[in-house]
Amino acid sequence: MAKQFILLLTLALLSSTAAFTPILTQQTSRQSFHLSARSRSKQDKSPRPNPAAGDFVEDDFDGINMIQLLGLKRLKKKARKNKRVLNQKIREGKVVQDEEGVWVPRSN
């Protein structure tokens, strides 16, 4: 009888604390993300190009995933800021649309 009581008590305690235990898959994915971020930062120990010394600086970012590099929230924030600045320039008359529909600075 005492063993059954202890077993039921242990089972009740485990089930009541199940909500406070971390889920293994979320914890594992977070750890793997942090480990991959650390490994990427360790791999990126190459010397940085110095434009003042005439080193080559890459300007072509076509093959780079900007969402992964900068983050989706940051890119959305930058897009909102750029749109706000463009709208302000349009209201002030500093930019006009050309034949292709691209906004360009107004030529006086």
Q: What would you note in describing this structure?
A:
The protein is mostly helical. The protein has a domain at 65-91. The chain has a two-stranded antiparallel sheet with strand order 1-2. The chain has helices at 2-16, 24-43, 66-70, 72-92, and strands spanning 95-97, 103-105. Helix content is 56%, strand content 6%. The mean pLDDT is 76. The longest helix has 21 residues, at 72-92. The chain contains four helices and two strands.
Task: Detail the topology: elements first, then pairings.
Layout: H1 2-16, H2 24-43, H3 66-70, H4 72-92, E1 95-97, E2 103-105
Quickly describe the structure.
The protein has 108 residues and is mostly helical. It is 56% helix and 6% strand.
Short descriptors:
108 residues, mainly alpha, two-stranded antiparallel ribbon, 4 helices
Q: Which oligomerization state do the chains in this entry correspond to?
A: single chain
Largest sheet: 2 strands, antiparallel
- Gyration radius (Cα, Å) is 28 Å
Helix content: 55-70%
Count the helices. How many? 4
Lateral arrangement of strands in the main beta sheet:
1-2
Q: State the shape.
A: elongated
Order of helices and strands: HHHHEE
Query: What's the overall average pLDDT, rounded?
Result: 76
* DSSP, total strands: 2
Task: Note the beta-strand portion.
Answer: 5-15%
Catalogue the unreliable spans.
Answer: none
Terminal CA distance: 97 Å
- Which class do the helix and strand fractions yield? mainly alpha
